[in-house]
Design brief:
Layout lengths: L6 H11 L7 H8 L5 E3 L5 E3 L5 E2 L4 H7 L7 H10 L4 E2 H4 L11 H6 L8 H12 L4 H13 L14 E4 L2 E4 L3 E5 L2 E5 L16 H4 L11 H9 L5 E5 L8 H8 L12 E6 L1 H4 L10 H13 L3 E7 L8 H12 L3 E8 L7 H13 L3 E7 L6 H4 L3 H13 L9 E7 L2 E11 L2 E11 L8 E5 L22 H8 L1
Parallel strand pairs: 8-9, 9-10, 10-11, 11-12, 12-13, 13-14
Antiparallel strand pairs: 1-2, 3-4, 5-6, 7-8, 14-15, 15-16, 16-17
Length: 481
Amino acid sequence: MVRATTTDIEKTVQDVTKNVFIRPPEVQKRYLNTPKPHWISSEGKIICHQPYKKYLRTDIADILARFGVNDPYLEERELIAQVFPFKINEHTLSLIDWNNFLTDPVAQLIFPQPGMLAESEIDQLRQLKHAKVSREIFAKAISEIRQTKNPAPANQSANRPTIEEGEDVEVVDGIQHKYSKTMLMFHKNAQTCHAYCTYCFRFNQFVGKDPFLEDDAQRMLKYVKQHPEITDILMTGGDPATMATEKWKECLLPLLEPEYNHIKTIRMGTKALTYYPYRFLTAADADELIDLFKLMTQKGKHISIMAHFSHYNEMGTICLEATKRLRQAGCVIRTQAPLMKHINNAGEVWAEMWQQQVSNGLIPYYMFVARDTGPQKYFEVTLAEALTIYQTARKELSGLGHTARGPSMSCSPGKVCVIGRETISNEDVFVLKFLQGRNADWTDRVFFAKYCNQATWIDQLKPAFGDQKFFFEDELKQIIS
């Protein structure tokens, strides 16, 4: 039986499902704890189930030894993994070219890299380790290093909304509402991922600092009901694909009731198609999740899988089989990734990745600029280089591959895209455009910044044509305050 946190939600779930998902408790328990032994593709290929097994920082040395890697940076990797959390699993290990471990893009994507911390920071941690200081002293040093890495970029805390009930006003920690049409939900059961990306800007969240989380669906449903302007709910985390289907039902099934008709789209931000595609094929409750998505689409809700792919090497046979099953369930898969040095900083890589995605029914959606957080210095690409890479990739694709927007900065004022470089009135400028804005009126507004071949983020740009500030700066200060 579907469990819920309140009587109202439980009644709603039971009403809308009409016994579609209701099973006797003993059957339900057996169903949810029994993975399918294998998946048979439409071509007859058998994909054997692989149980999820994670490896953490203390396993790095054993993993490298298992694959015959004599790593000159082992100590640095282990120290850096104290600051930026490390997690990997068996499936993800299979995507790495172990003969070229030091340069392999998937290895760069997951294994800590020496350049992710400054040499002085690594030396500090190395000295503390060799001095065998107490756990408290070591943890304090790690925390202090993390705090220098801008762990909450783009004024994320300002995105937390409030729920008003009479004179009572409650700040909702597990919801972000930055753009009027889209609300983000951070469920407490989606606070992890099947593996961790080295460049992830939510590293502080994974170590229990400044968490965005909601205990259940209640406040989310209450907030959405109070805000009819919201059309899209983005389930994010962590990775909501790590949530049991039971939790998905508690969040989604009530949205089929008439008071939520303004909700048109449910998005899942996920990297599970890379890190654990078995979630959608052979996991114990994979069939139930697919059935839930089918029901939602049949009832008129659009399900959009916001899939994170940083390199075409992530898109193996099992991944593509999972994408096919999701699409057959009525889901649309849109792809996005940040542009990262050492992983995908070449137009040819993006062109190949986008072409493979289009060929398999996926829709390229965004190329992001590395956020000004975490190990940005190691991964960042200048805005000038980013624009060249983006334009190079587009030239190698037909129009079907031109759906990806970028290079885009998810910064405090909104999503700002670098759309070109021009000479206007004898001044060399970047042409910038708001794709989304904290103020919806900024959307599609074009503005100009002085060209700078070293800038990697919007706060390093200066207004063009002698302007003292960008048009949005004063209003942004008022919104944030």
